[in-house]
Design goal:
- The protein has 308 residues and is of the alpha/beta class.
- It folds into two domains: 196 residues, DHBP synthase (Alpha-Beta Complex); 81 residues, Rossmann fold.
- Helices cover 31% and strands 16% of the residues.
- A nine-stranded mixed sheet has the order 7-1-2-6-3-5-4-8-9, sandwiched between helices. A four-stranded parallel sheet has the order 10-13-11-12, covered by helices on one side.
- A hairpin with a 6-residue loop joins β8 and β9.
- α1 packs across α5.
- The longest helix is centred in the last third of the chain and has 16 residues.
- The radius of gyration is 19 Å and the shape is globular.
- 48% of the residues are buried.
- The protein binds threonylcarbamoyladenylate and magnesium ion.
Length: 308
Amino acid sequence: MITETKKAATLLREGKLVAFPTETVYGLGGNALSDAAVAAIYAAKERPQFNPLIVHVQSLEEAQIYAEFSEAALELARRFWPGPLTLVLPRRPDCALSLLVSAGLDSVAIRVPAHPLAQELLQEAGLPIAAPSANRSGRISPTEAAHVREELGNRIAMILDGGPCQVGIESTVVDMTGDMPVILRPGGLVIPAEAGIYSRIDSRLRGNDSIKSPGQLASHYAPSKPMRLNATYVRTYEALLVFGADIPSSAVAIENLSPTGNLQEAAANLFRMLRLLDASTAKSIAVMPIPEEGVGIAINDRLKRAAS
Ligand code: TXA
Ligand code: MG
């Protein structure tokens, strides 16, 4: 019997697009060695060409075929791969990855996903897989196969269903091309302070933010309804996204990210609940405050972009 994963791998080798689960969100995958496949990803997502893509590989050893690793980069990769960490690294001079994945930069973003189906797919396909989140550009990232079907259903060859994503929020992106590692996008991996990595805020102070994080468009991850953040009360026409036990009693629709106040659980629920509230009859969405700590930093980053 041909498994779904084998079928997906064959399609990828034929240059087609396949959505697949990772531990963070579903990815829209294509052969990262093929300009045509990568161009098809941009087209399916309606993504601006200047926003580069993440390349997924099986291992650190495979990543080293394409990118240059400093000692510091090796240390991070050994410590956190496989997992929700993306490293932006210099392309090797002989790098065979499509130039389109880098969107004109001389760097490439690489990660080794931890999800068993993603690992299996990479192994079966025997290719590096370029994959942005499997949503149309600017919209909410998919954490279930059904979300991908809504976003891209008829535009892609296949969706590999691995159930809901466990982390639920995209990988942490760290730029390793400069003197100091810089977090370009907070994400599912909370990097401990002792790892000595600058946040994006620090890099902005250093004045080089614009070139380094082309994907950080202010408006992103957006529901179609207006959003109001840090809400302490709810208006009659609003849907409400809450966190914790202490919540207002009435709203057109309510979703609770985590009744026990667990940030990991909140991250895993975030995009699914935003979709549910967006589909409600409410005019707009109010969001109660989320603590700015741990993975809450990534949650607040996504909420701010969704609201802007
Ligand atoms: O968890 C994730 O990272 C998911 C799963 C599918 O792996 N992927 C994902 O991809 O979120 P995407 O394309 O939606 O976001 C990629 C981010 C963007 O912010 C992009 O600008 C940044 O990574 N990026 C990619 N290549 C880069 C590069 N060479 N330099 C700087 N930033 C880069
Ligand atoms: Mg995305």
